[in-house]
Every structure is written in C-alpha cells, then in structure tokens.
Amino acid sequence: MTSSHPLNKTDLNTARGIAALIDHTLLKPEATRDDIVGLCNEARECGFATVCVNPSWVKLAAATLARSSVGVATVTGFPLGAHKTPTKILEAEQALRDGATEIDMVLNIGSLRSGDFTFVGTEIGRIALVVHAQRARLKVILETCLLTFDEKVIACRLAAEAGADFVKTSTGFAASGATESDVRLMRETVGPKLGVKAAGGIRTLDQLHAMVAAGANRIGTSSGVSILRELAPEAHLVASNTQSSH
Fold first, then answer.
1. Integer distance in angstroms from the first to the last C-alpha of the chain?
2. Of the candidates 75, 84, 201, which has an alpha carbon nearest to the alpha carbon of residue 138?
3. Assuming Cys at both sites, which of 111, 151, 162, 214 could form a disulfide with 183, CB separation 3.0 to 4.6 Å?
4. Would the pLDDT of 243 be above 80?
5. pLDDT greater than 50 at residue 145
6. Active-site positions?
7. Which superfamily is assigned to 9-233 in CATH?
8. Are 228 and 204 in contact (CB under 8 A)?
9. Are 145 and 118 in contact (CB under 8 A)?
10. What residues have CB less than 8 Å from 182, skipping those under 6 apart?
11. What is the value of pTM for the model shown?
12. What is the C-alpha to C-alpha distance for residues 73 and 213, in angstroms, rounded to an integer?
C-alpha cells in the first residue's frame, strides 16, 4: 500500500493542512483509558491523520474513532526493536484485527549495526506482507540517534526494498528524536515514493515547518493541539474545551 502522500506546501498555512500531517501520539505507559478517549476526541475535532497509541489501546481507539476520518496507528517491536520476528508479526496481526490502520515497527537495530542486512530486510518484508494484506500502512522506525550516517542510508534502502510505506526517525524513547539533517537524508535516500515521518521532540509550529521543509510528510507528536493553537486565524478548528492529554 505504498503511497507518496505528496506535500502541498500551501496547506501549511492552515490548521486543517497542518492537522492532516500529524499522528496525534500518546505512548506513555501511564496513559489511562480516559486519556486515550481524550486523545481520540482531540484527533476527531482537529482532523489529525491518526492517533498513535500502544497496542493494548488499539481496540478502544478504533471504537472511539468509528465513523471518523482519523486512522489508528500503533507500534510493533517497541521501543527497542529487539523482539523476535514472530513476536513482531503476532503484534501486528493482533493490532490489525483490533482496528489499526497503520503499524509503526522498530527495526532490529542491533542486527542492522551488526551488518546482518538480509535479516533486517527480511523481517521488514514479512511484516509488510501482513500489514498490506489488511490494506494498512507500514512505517519502519530507524531510531536515527543510534545509527551512523551509512547505517541510516542502509536502513532506508532496506525498508524501501522490503515494501515499507514510510521510514520514521525515532521512537521518542531514545536519547534524542528527529533532526532536520536526518529527515533530509531519509528523504534523499528513499526519494518521492515513500513517506518520511519525523517523530520525537517536535513541539512547536516552527519545528513542524522545519521538518516538512526537510522532507517529512508525516509528523508524530504529542503536541498537536498546541501546535494548531499557534495558528490564531484558524483557532476555530480546535474546540475551545479541548485539552492536551500529555
């Protein structure tokens, strides 16, 4: 289900256009049922692309967002990427049954850094088959702060060759998150046909603009509501009683 999701720069001047780039994210382990419902209500009100939640919350999120245009993303092999491949596949299969429309998997970072590129590519490909069979999208998280320049390039190429729909910078749980230079490198490596998701540490409208300018066409952030509120002329698109859960 590869899609380039081409960027429309004029959309960056409107809250609706900005919102369509955002995966509204809550992956904190202490998140409660009420927090997840609140996240979903924010996403529906603001028109975000998806909510991104932990696997145990996918079914609740899918039910809460039923009959809305907001997708449900979840994570697999998160946050270390060190799960065995059958475990990652089972996680993805269950999430898809529960209503996920996008899977953000962490690649096996240790195997990549060990030079076991065949294993890394094969694992991504096996999960891509599972995800695409349900007409969902697969994003591959590289955890760029742990990789060298060459490893980032190799990871992007492996993800593209294995059939991923997006490459993604970070889990948000490592030492640092997205950087403009990493996003630019990822976009240059995968070209226009794959999505590039910047995630980790993006909290302001200026940061979002910088990541999009570098080549991102999806943004993972827990600060989506506050980012939209920076666009005062479009503030009516965000409910006055909406509060961020994170």
1. 31
2. 75
3. 214
4. no
5. yes
6. 104, 168, 197
7. Aldolase class I (3.20.20.70)
8. no
9. no
10. 144, 152, 169
11. 0.91
12. 24
